[in-house]
Amino acid sequence: MNDLFLPGLSRRGFLKASAAAGGGLLISFTLPGLMGFAEAADGDFSPNAYIRIDRSGKVTFIIQPVEMGQGTYTSMPALIAEELEVSLDQVVIEHAPADDKRYANPMLGFQVTGGSTSIPANWIPLRQAGATARTLLVTAAAQQWSVPAGSCKVENGVVVHPDSGRKLGYGELADAAAKLPVPGEVPLKDPAQFKLIGTPAKRTDGPAKVTGRAMFGIDARPEGVKVAAITICPIIGGTLAEVDDAPAMAVKGVHKVVRTKDAVAVIADHTGAARKGLAALQIKWNEGENGKVSSADMLKNIAEASKAEGVKVRAEGDVPAAMAKATKKVEVVYQVPFLAHACMEPVNCTAHVRKDGCDLWLGIQVPARAKTLAAQLTGLPEESVQVHNQLLGGGFGRRLETDFVGHAVEVAKQVDYPVKVIYSREEDIRHSSLRPFHYNHLSAGLDEQGHPIAWSHKVTGGSIIARWAPGLFKNGIDGDAARDACGPYGFPNLAVHYVRHEPPKGITPAFWRGVGHTQNCFMVEGFLDELAVMSKIDPFTYRYPLLEKHPRAVKVLETLREKSAWDSPLPAGKGRGVALTYCFGTYAAQVAEVSVDANGMVTVNKVICVVDCGIPINPDTVVAQIQGGTVFGLTAVLFGNITFKDGRVEQGNFDSYRLLRLNEVPPIETHIINSGESPGGLGEVSTVVIAPAVVNAIFAATGKRLRTLPVDPAQLKPA
Length: 719
What we know:
- The protein is α+β, with helices and mostly antiparallel strands and 719 residues long.
- Helix content is 29%, strand content 23%.
- The strands form seven sheets. Strands 11-12-9-19-16-17-18 form a seven-stranded mixed β-sheet.
- The relative contact order is 0.11.
């Protein structure tokens, strides 16, 4: 099986065995990602992940990715347990400390959980680590028994010599194994021998979450902690002018009113007092330059900006020449709105700032960035900042940002005790980083049979990469904004351009579950559906010739056509729509069945999904991720829209920023194809593909094409 992500990996340079503190075996490994950390010049080894086996036989795995509902705490230990021949419940999880050097994501080069990279990045390294530990333990036992290592086997954390019946547990062998040299080559198990990988497994984090023992950031209670309610200037980019403390200080339980450049926080014994004190304040804000900013103005500005040619991202063939020969030319504009993340757990951070150190308790996707920011704001060296990362009650990209960490540290600097700063739902939505607003031009030239011979896609919108990872923003191109601009399809003549157009200062374009795919897949799959209908060719059939280089995609579509009963008729007012994506190394397609009533209200009756994510680590997690991502995406398709008026976000709580309700969730049917390939990412795939599937189904039901999200029932009412 090919390792697409870690070329040239040397096992000898990758792994190191040593005695763990207190005795036992420590398997350390460094991953050759973008950072390339290895053994330091002074001889100190700085691994970015490791396995410990102590004298009791307990296996401890230091895990780099954070757990935010995606099943990391179950799927990643399975990779080690499979090769080490132990059960999943024999592996204890410890979360990695905040350290970009030792615990970098091997695909991205720094400590981050995102981009559906956790499994693809660790598929080979974690298995190698487990296999190396197993080999060392077997070798130690064989030497003790004076028998060939090949005559021994392992089962359930025990090395067995079948011929003599002798057995030794891993704990009994750990010290001896730690003294052995690391083998240069370690065979990995053949997938046909897998016992854990590919088998449904209960979530290891499930019991603690069900019983309430699980610790999320919002649950942190360090000794002496007090709670702060915060309000941030409602005008984007605005600042604090003045506030009178007296009304808040009159509230029982309130201790202090704290000011920052753009916010006011009330610190109290508990949340109720803090919120009551905050509500009592009369605050004046400096609006700054954005006091009149509106969504209408932003739409006008981005539409004008989109007329520019933009920077060439991709070019194949000769699009102008093909267009000139085309029998038919089609040009359309698609657009998607700003979107907030609206995680179940509002963003929060508990901070304790002292003269000699700072502690943070929170859930965040970039713990090392939180550590760096706290050091900058306090003037402390980074080694004096400790990040106690907790479980995340939803991330979706929101916790790739550190703005809420900055506010908590600025508040905590003004007191001498720990302060838990919790955003209200309104503050969370109104000051969220946002998926960018995009305004894209697509055009195609068709031959006499209606097949596309030319494809052009111009992406216009703000750049996340330029702000968040400026080293990756090269030649004016945001690779995330332009990704998936032609899907997995092979067009004989192709052109993709990018026009960078930033929103007003203070609006933060940011990653959102599915990132650039969520914008462009909606547009590409919607436009392709338009071309199929225009050419009077079935949408499935229309796609097949364009996927010659992607046989896995063809199989996904063929399976979906069968499982969705695509060729069976539906009553009037109902329709089916199909959409396909290849993202994060995974192929997935969905058919949505919808109905539209006389008022234009859309009901999604059923969603059928077929997914090929390579080898599925835990099929139960695959299904859960498809379901969760579909619901997340459906919310955005039907309701998601952040709008601005007079420099302010108009939405606040879930009354104005609607989520899909339990009674609105359709049956979601998932079919998994195990192609035997290396695993792809999964957490964002169904969020990407559901939008075009629903919009294409709406067209099938009503004959009305939507090129703007969210769905507007007024556009679907019968004339």
